[in-house]
Amino acid sequence: MSKPVYGIGGRFAKWLISAPPLVYLLVFFALPALIMVFAAFRFPGDYGGLLPLVETDPETGKQTVLITLDTWRDYLTFENFGRFFEDSIYIELFLKSFWYAGLTTLICLILAYPLSWLIARSHKKTRDLLVLLVILPFWSNFLIRVYAWMIILGPQSYFSQAVNGVLGVFGIEPVSLLFSEFAVIVGLVYVHLPFMVLPLYANLEKHDMSLLDAAQDLGANAWQRFWRVTWPLSLPGVWAGVALVFIPALGMFAIPDLLGGTNSMMIGNLIKQQYLDSRDWPFGSVLSIMLTLSVLLLALVAAWAGSRGKKKD
Amino acid sequence: MALLEIRDVVKRFGDFTAVNHVSLAVEAGEFFTLLGPSGCGKTTLLRMLAGFERPDSGEIVLDGINVANVPPEKRPVHTVFQNYALFPHMTVAQNIAFPLKMAGVPQAQIAGRVDELLEDVRLQEFAKRYPHELSGGQRQRVAIARALVNRPKLLLLDEPLSALDAKLREQMQIELITLQKEVGITFVYVTHDQGEALALSHRIAVMNKGHVEQLDAPEHIYSYPKSRFVADFIGQCNLLEATVSELGPERMTLEIAGVGLCHVQPVAGAQVGQKGCLALRPEKIKLGATLPADDSDEVHFKGKVHDCLYLGDVTIYIVELDNGMLVETMLPNSAPGRAKFFDDNDLVELAWRYDAGHFILG
Ligand SMILES: Nc1ncnc2c1ncn2[C@@H]1O[C@H](COP(=O)(O)OP(=O)(O)OP(=O)(O)O)[C@@H](O)[C@H]1O
Ligand SMILES: [Mg+2]
Asked: Cβ A211–B87 below 8 Å, yes or no?
């Protein structure tokens, strides 16, 4: 008898709890995304932004809708997408950004794996301290940390002088570390490293150490124990870290802006340029959509490859 | 020569001695059990055999080779871990194939060998399942198959059945015995369950506080415990305090204070006046309202029933002797419709033959 009452109460409570985040996501995520998609099909306005679809009479304040069944061709277009494919420069920029983000992800993974492993294996007390150290950089402002790298990589720094000193020994001309692809990668790796360490650590910390004993007992050497047991079991953590590093790194514009040279621009910079400098919102939207689509495509390919790999084994 | 020889092995953790001067030898093909209470050092000894711990002193000789400095992965010894330690990301077949892959067995031979083992442990239909899709008993069998697949010289099993319920444990015990006979591999089995040890083993080493108290065949351990600890730890046993009162070639006489004299088989080294205890198994004691005194080999004592425990197949009677000493006896309830022979406070008579018990000095 009491069951249905509970049921209704339960369902109601479920809705009540999930409503705020749902509304939040709809208003601040889904809606802007839709507006952006719509913008990609419109024409730029005379002074930037978008060509208005509604005209307001300055005197009477009366509004007329300009876009009608007859006139929609003057307001909606595929041209913006055409522009993206017309000039190879955009595709090249995409590929370069993928390369930067991919390289960043790989370096982060190589640096973070042993670090996470060490943290996960250390004593409880040291472990908490080490995790704190990993997230410590978040306590200071992102831009300030990037400026710090400008000083570290700048020509006056001991680091630069040491590098150029060593290069000098081999008779190589001094190089500028700052404003280069090198600086961009260093910055990207630096900023994203914690996002690789944390999911990996969370995963490695849960590993059952008796599995390694078992593997060793059954004849696996140190490398085989890693490759056959630890690595496959850590894959969920690896994938989480890869997603958390690769996707934000792909859209990054502040680091190439501050640390990069003229030729180390990324998609993020181009999108920012379209929106803010050229005030070409439709093309900016097209670039954003293409970015989102390419990441989705990549994720699908990865998921497909993953499921195929599993079946084959 | 024995397959495995442990010579005077000592293992300390800090100033705690976990394994204390243990020496023993295990023959090829033997089902050898280390039995002892929790914390007596069984796992530590086993981990030294597997190579995970190094003895502080002493030697472990396997097949004529001192393996002290051989790492676990290079020893022809495999372990069945207490929690099974199956690889969760591998199927049953992949788990079993693991040691073969590590040993570099050609791919073509692996599948056949894995199938053989799956058949041995009756898990053919489960080859493609993952460990989390199996029951406890099935996981257990996978762990055993995995440890046996590339024919180690020695299989170590650390309380492999302790996570299973009583019924399944009994079934797995039978399977283990059959499997061991079939594969002919030497088993070193660790348990704190004396029933399991008696049922499975060819020989048992009873351990206490890091050292071996007694090493014998199960029937010897049970019938002739060498120390109070062994007598008490293995099965139910009456330990009647007694003093040696007379020595003889065939039997010696004991005095049980306040009860009387009784005969036992002589014990080497016993002297008149020495104290000790008579270890007497409940099932070796006769119990009746009156018992015919026609056998001069028997001693008789009177007492009264203090308590009885009905266990279904048997009933345990705790009988109080004249001096207040409690003696545990049992009678099978084999007569049809019969639940009990006696009740509390019934007057009864006890009798046992001179060779029913066993005198433990000290
Ligand atoms: N790594 C270690 N460090 C310190 N002490 C240890 C260590 N390993 C075992 N010990 C101690 O050595 C003793 C024997 O431990 P062991 O695990 O061999 O017991 P066990 O006979 O297997 O007991 P159980 O039946 O409970 O498994 C215990 O008192 C334990 O506390
Ligand atoms: Mg143990």
From this structure: yes
Chain A residues whose CB is inside 8 A of the B71 CB are 216
Q: Is A138 strand, coil or helix?
A: helix
Euclidean distance between CA atoms A175 and A164, whole angstroms: 7
Q: Would you say the CB of residue B43 lies under 6 angstroms from ligand 1?
A: yes
With an 8 Å Cβ cutoff, is B104 touching chain A? Answer: no
Of the CA atoms within 13 Å of residue B40, those in its CB half-sphere come to 20
Lowest mean pLDDT, pick from A196-200, A241-245, B202-206, B334-338: B334-338
pTM (2 decimals)? 0.84
Give the residue numbers spanning the domain of A119. 78-312
Query: For residue range A162-182, what is the model confidence (pLDDT) as tens digits?
Result: 999 999 999 888 888 899 999
Whether A4 has a pLDDT exceeding 60, the answer reads no
Name the residue with the closest Cα to ligand 1, atom 27: B38
pLDDT of residue B298: 84
Residues near B319 by Cβ (< 8 Å), separated by ≥ 6? B287, B303, B304, B305, B306, B326, B327, B328, B329, B348, B350
Element (H, E) at A287: helix A281-312
Q: What is the CATH T-level fold of the domain B237-361, as seen in this structure?
A: OB fold (Dihydrolipoamide Acetyltransferase, E2P) (2.40.50)
Can you give the residue ranges of every domain in chain B? 4-229, 237-361
Nearest CA to ligand 1 atom 20: B39
Q: Provide the 10 A C-beta neighbour count for residue B170.
A: 15
